Give the backbone structure.
Amino acid sequence: MIKKELLEILACPACKTEVSLVDDKIVCRSCQRKYPIKDSIPIMLIDQAEECQSEGGK
């Protein structure tokens, strides 16, 4: 699992916003991209992130 100290210094590489740990993924608080964690290492690469779904089905 990710240590709290590491989580506090991480930022989304796409928008430079703080991130949170949600369901074993690092989630950007602004753009909502979800970055995977593999072998306790966050993979903070934009091309590896799951982008958020647009709201309202647009």
